[in-house]
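Hey all, sorry for the wall of text incoming. These are the two entities for the joint prediction.
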Amino acid sequence: MTEPSGIPAPAVRPHERILAMRGISKHFGAVQALTDIDLDVYAGEVVALVGDNGAGKSTLVKALAGVYPPDGGTIEFAGRQVTIDSPADARNLGIATVFQDLALCDNLDVVSNLWLGRELTVGGTLDEVGMEQQSWKLLRELSAKIPSVRIPIASLSGGQRQTVAIARSLIGDPQMVILDEPTAALGVAQTAEVLNLIERLRERGHGVVLISHNMADVLAVADRVVVLRLGRNNGVFQVGDTGVTGESIIAAITGATDNAVTRRAAQKNPEKGGEP
Amino acid sequence: MSIPNSVPSQDAAAGSLAADRQDERLVQHHGPGGALRAFVARIRGGDLGALPVVVGLAIIWAVFQALNPVFLSSTNLVNLSMQCAAVGTIALGIVLVLLLGEIDLSVGSVSGLSSAVLAVGFVQWGWPLLGAVLAALALGAVIGLFYGLLYTRFGVPSFVITLAGLLGFLGLQLLVLGRTGSINIPFDSWIVQFAQQMFLPEWLSYLLVLLTVLAYGWQGWTHARRRAAANLSRLSTTSILLRCAALLVVLAVPTWYLNRTRGVGLMFLLFLVLVVAMNFLLTRTRWGRAVFAVGGNVEAARRAGIRVRRVYLSVFILTSTFAALGGLLAASRLAAANQSSGGGDTNLNAIAAAVIGGTSLFGGRGSAYSALLGIVVIQSISSGLTLLSLDASVRYMITGAVLLLAVVIDSLSRRSRQAAGRG
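and here's what came out:
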């Protein structure tokens, strides 16, 4: 795979800490959505953020993306204390987010969506040729199955839209990419493509935050798994360490080793003791 | 004007396809026949573009010509072109605000207020003419800024804000005019001369047509060359030449016909230049792309880092400024400002022109050219009915019916676009 030209890898040395969130909290009215959350992301690392529905994953990600600024706590990005008050702030810092609802403009074509907010210009006017050429390079690198980049987004399938959304996050050279359930709507082959893509992001030195409910995906690509439960940190697992399995992570997610998931697994498969 | 790349490269290197034509699922359209098939497929998919309005205009002209042979005379068409300029300029502003999926119902009042400021400032208070013109335009911009701030700060629907503005600025117009009610602008002032008497010399009009076609062809050719250099499909030289020839006919024939009597009015030319300039801004700049993005999906635009508030502010300001400019043109053409300036059907005509021309009421879809096409339709109906000595009552009803028809076509084509996956 060749690097797409014009989209250089970030200028951060591998394994340098790019993000440190400390004591992040956020409430919506009477609901304390996040309490004292800590999160670290290093360059060239995939951090999976897991937790049940309502655990606060999306809120935490939105705090990073500038959608809901947090009420308390500090964010250190690339060694500097920062405040992220708007999506533009996040983008300018180098944090790219692919939201679950993708946020694409249906009336615009693929090229326009890819470069939205970061259009290339020549002499003050849009450089359509340059943008289309680089779009093709990027999409080819991602092995994207998009027939034409000049058709409106409305005519693409769910997987194709996901691909466009992920490709879009790479334009603008982010240090960190946040993917909110990127494989939730995808077919088998496309899921594998996205996982490959996540590994490619890691190789290029991006920090990746991956939100997923799919343990197989998480264990396949993540270096570290951060578990949230009811708006609090509930364990960090180094994937590859002995004893880190799907069950131990699920135990942290649900808050008990004896839970609905393990009981169900044990019933189904009594000899093996419940491999999920 | 973006150039659709429906015709693949004719000189693709050694049989290999251009980078954007390689997908096997892509239906390949070759040559002029292929371009025609692609066009039919697009229409069937609900992407009607300018087709309904062009067909409608042909029908309207045929009917009125059959009823009154004066209708398509050069004299009447020159008049028609001059009538288009003022409301067309207002409609251009409406196109912008509709692209965002918003509306400005006060453009009529703002244009009337601007007429009043011009007349009172210039005639009664003795301001220099240019000063009065600039003051009226600045007032329009301030009104737009006010709307924009109300909309972005408080989230009041634009429909309500501008409905309040419709009444409020009509009141201000009456206040500015005072008890006189009607003020004449001297005939020898340059602005009245500009709107009534100034026409392009024949040679200059043809030169402009020629330069426009050359500029279009040159731009198409450089674009195709850049695409070829980037290994993308490009228009063949033949199709660029065909397009240039078509444009030449579309521009030269009306110019020739108008030149048989008075010719192309400077005021109409100003309107055309504004339309082309707005089209350029909308299709070729980051600002234009942001307008379409906000109109299509405001949340997506915000997350893409577009400063959505600025886009809203800029569009509201432009809309009101165009309304003010339209008021100036109307006052100069009439050589007077009075209490009914900008009243009556001005508002509805401007909005109808934008919608009839093909700009969607639902946002994110449309073009600056719809102001031009739409206003020609509206003024054709108006002029034709006037020639038949039918009075305002019939004109209002027919214009209303045409607007309704345009909105129905807009809604239907939106539905078939959704069915055909064209958003």
